[in-house]
Structures
1.
Amino acid sequence: MFADIIVDISHEKLDRVFAYRIPDGMLDSVQIGSMVDIPFGNGNRVTTGYVVDIKETVDFDESRIKDIIGLTSKTIPINSTLINMAWFIRNTYGSTMNQALKTVIPVKYQVNQKLDRKIKLIADETTVNEKLEVYGRKRAVAKIRLLETVVSVNEIDYTYAMKVLKISSDVIKSLEKEQIIKVEENIAYRNPISIKQKDLGQAIELNEKQREIADKIKNSLGGTPKNAHLIHGVTGSGKTEVYLDVIDEVIKKGQQVIVLIPEIALTYQTVKRFYNRFGDTVSIINSRMSAGERYDQFERAKKGLVNIMIGPRSAIFTPFSNLGLIIIDEEHEASYKSEQIPKYHARETAIYRASLSNATVVLGSATPSVESYFKALSGEYVLHELEYRAKSSKMATVHIVDLREELEKGNRGIFSDKLNELILDRLSKKEQIMLFINRRGYGGFVSCRKCGEAMKCPHCDVGLTFHKADDSLKCHYCGYTIKKPEKCPKCSSKYIAAFGTGTQKVEDFVKKQYPMAKVLRMDMDTTSKKNAHQDILESFADMEADILVGTQMIVKGHDFPNVTLVGVIAADLSLYGNDYRASERTFQLLTQAVGRAGRGEKDGEAVVQTYSPDNYAIVSSANQNYKEFYEQEIMYRKLMDYPPAGNIMAILITDENQEILDNASNKLKEIIEKQQKNTNLCYNDMKCIGPVDASVSKINDLYRKVIYIKSSNENKIIDIKNYLEDVIKLDEELKNVAVQFDFNPMNGY
Ligand code: ADP
Ligand code: ZN
Ligand code: ZN
């Protein structure tokens, strides 16, 4: 027998399968998914590899095939569904198979397991009494102590016996030999959820509309997974209750469920709702867990000890054997697309995984991605709408403030008159306020007011941001940090200042303007410590502060019933990004921000400050009108052939040498154009744009160029990507620069 093996080295040149012989003695142990030691290359250096296929014959000279040395010790085999997903990811998003395999197996090595040992009574009453008599005669006090305790409670903990009862392991062994007790060993998996199981089983009765949606989804279980369901429902409309109802049905059928929730929304409250309903068959994973904790959760899933896995993007790789349902909440979130190679999208990957096991996919969002809504309208997905909040139907009143007019009135502060008026009102009523600004630090770029010199990062083509807490200037791309210079390095003037507004500046401004208010700030700088995120949210929920200032971290998925005012300081900040999703992102952020106001009994208001009060993303988010936004946005996408009207492959080329980079990018472009002209292949509608400098043209001392390929046909784009991957491997000039592919990117380059 022979094995096809992917060598555990991520190099384009080695990105293919190598055949090895499985020696007779290993036929039982080597399986698809095993990790094995193999002799590799001319020197036969021992290397590891993954078995991705097993077959009886090979197409070439068998005598030249090397033998597998053995299983790599302490590794865990990957299941074949995950290998299949790795091929899909490799092919669609571009990477080596080895990188794709590493993505689908979050833990490669077996982590030391904790054992849970118990001592159990196995002898009957008469034997026990006889033994006690014998021990009494022999004055075997330790044996008596152990046996009496075990008899009284039937089962005791091994460590309890050793530490508290002071029984030696010899004594335990001797009683075991006499067949009075037995020692049972179980693997003690770490359980990440520490919630007391008090309200278990309680289900809310669905309203008519929720019932209808849940029933439709349940009726489709086991059908064609490609027809994912999209639930478009405002925040608080009861989508989660629908998920819970459908999950219940799937669990009853003996199948398993994966629930994807963006990490930032994966809070105690969310997990608790699932746990209260389904108890400890629920598990979670998140990025803060140790390798051991993650390993345990996947083991529990594999062994069938849990049926529901909740987690961010990577939970899609949970090794369930009988998956029935995948739920993706907040399906529009950018965090569902990986930022590392392979840049897979969890939604597309989920639909692929579902197709392998006939599972159903349910997507949910208050602001669906333009892609998903487009597919829902075209009938590829099934669309369900929940228009009203389940509890109170009131939406916040939104005021759009034109910042140009404020300036004309002579208001040079950060807050408009309207926002100031409402802040004072809420402070006097002891109601809470959230202020949202999409930029951390003290402001935008830092420059000299006299000569105009901008303080830039020496390693990246971006300006440095002022951080007041440690009086430093930081690069948000590479982390480069310097003390804020006293004088301008060019003209020695001391007027160096930060322009624009960031979270720290807003915080300072609030403190100055409203000294009586207690203020909390939440952004990447205040949440770097473990649990800091949760601590800030909890103290705000406990009314320890009047105002919470923060970046998008504060607008996602948190429910604060006492917040009745939301201020968006500068709605334009995300509008002029360099990519086609800028309007969509702005709409989503603003809708979420505005939706934070008035989640309780009291009515909410929101103030959206902007320089472009007529922009459709801003107007439709203020009206909380998704369809109005979608109609405008899809027109623009169609006009420009942007997804979902077309497909884009971004090709990022980087090198530390600018000239080498220029030559390589030009050559790549020529290769693409030549291939395009290849008439047999009919790349008629394909467009190739670039190479151009990336919008950040240098990061970490690497220069960056980008080429875009656009086509209405997804398969054509994947074809040409595969072709380029092959060409790059062999081309002397191209193989030394780094080339990355990004299919339908979430962010611009
Ligand atoms: P979403 O997931 O759409 O944000 P949730 O499912 O979290 O909405 O529901 C919002 C709130 O309304 C929750 O507190 C939930 O318990 C409650 N709720 C949802 N559906 C119902 C219902 N049918 N009856 C009563 N309360 C409900
Ligand atoms: Zn200067
Ligand atoms: Zn930098």
Note: The chain has a mean pLDDT of 87.
2.
Amino acid sequence: MKAHDGIYLDGAWRPATGPDTIEVVNPVDEQVIGRVPAGTAEDVDAAVRAARAALPAWAATAPAQRAARLAALRDALAARQDEIAETVTAELGAPAKLAQAVHAALPITVAGSYAELAATYAFEEKVGNSTVHHEPIGVVGAITPWNYPLHQIVAKVAPALAAGCTVVLKPAEDTPLVAQLFAEAAHEAGVPAGVFNLVTGLGPVAGQALAEHLDVDLVSFTGSTAVGRQIGATAGAAVKKVALELGGKSANVILPSADLAKAVNVGVANVMSNSGQTCSAWTRMLVHREQYEEAVGIAATAVAKYGDRIGPVVSAKQRARVRSYIEKGVAEGARLVAGGPESPRERGYFVSPTVFADVTPDMTIAQEEIFGPVLTILSYEDEEDALRIANGTVYGLAGAVWAGDEEEAVAFARRMDTGQVDINGGRFNPLAPFGGYKQSGVGRELGTHGLAEYLQTKSLQF
Ligand code: NAD
């Protein structure tokens, strides 16, 4: 795999200040496929200074000019679609089809959506005797995870650039190669020097330096709740805005009137996709007690089909984490109906697609984010019980409701404490706001709501 041995700073690849590197490992065969610099606090500081210096000119560009750069970025990503998909397959382990259809294709759609929004958004509005200007918030520190590595980069960088902000990106250490491809695409698209900068590095070193940097105006972070909490506290102390996309433990509520087989099959597919490494995955399936055993049977049959088709999880650390949750599920008395903690292959970070039945709401596997191919199935007595269970975690990122008619499903969904709900299998909408209630985060990404995160208002009175 191609890997740059520098950081992308002020429009060029430059050597990092320290000698340390990060090895990138293919999770399928555990082979090292590349090395990237482990950036230091000094590198981060240099990148923030470049972003600060580039800010006034970029913030002053006409929205149409920024739209043109974003359209060029979309085209540059599209031209590299195959290379992007191959890179995500190599460093994340995503099966080729998923890598093409989601990991490579979705960022092109999102970059395109911000090219359009930059051109059409009302950056100025009239409110009575005032003119309200929506101005860029400034220098953005973006910290991203590995599970949808390019999507999460584009979901931050594209709206930031559309708003007129400049950016320093610190991508996940497990998936830095696709971040380097993104920097190449930004360069090719004519994004001016210093407007986008990339520092690869370790979270507690480069990530922390970026989150703590006093000259960063907004930190946008996606990742674990533990790190998000720390970043939120640091930003709070500096009276600085943050956007946090954190974990989830979403409920898939199957009401008695629903098409049970369809709801269970789609629910299983949702959890197994990307080897369960999706923050919005519906990892808790809620089924009425009278339909419970039937649903468990359908899920066991459905999951058997996934056996060899899902990829590995991202790293040895992640595999150990997922396996320890599976062991905990067994220890706490849940019934294993498929999979288990043993590795299905000798090589690679594979985890067996796993389904637990007889899961009670207080069990660890029903409360904590596992981030692996593990589905828990819970039973409920009536709708009120289902709602209590669905809302009964610290998270509130996503969810699903299935019912015989849409109105019934919508009425239930409106009572859920969560940021987005798919009704009877509704499709993902890359223009709809994405983000969480409760400890799933602060702020929204995608579409106009995602753009607004990078803007602040100035009111002029006449
Ligand atoms: P993480 O939160 O440790 O890492 C996410 C990003 O934050 C990475 O770029 C990392 O380098 C950086 N980071 C780590 N420590 C930091 C610090 N102290 N200061 C600043 N930045 C820091 O997540 P992880 O270790 O990659 O995964 C752990 C768990 O997080 C997963 O098992 C999963 O539950 C959750 N997760 C959630 C999402 C999501 O989309 N919500 C994505 C990835 C991981």
Note: Residues 106 and 151 are 7 Å apart (CA to CA).
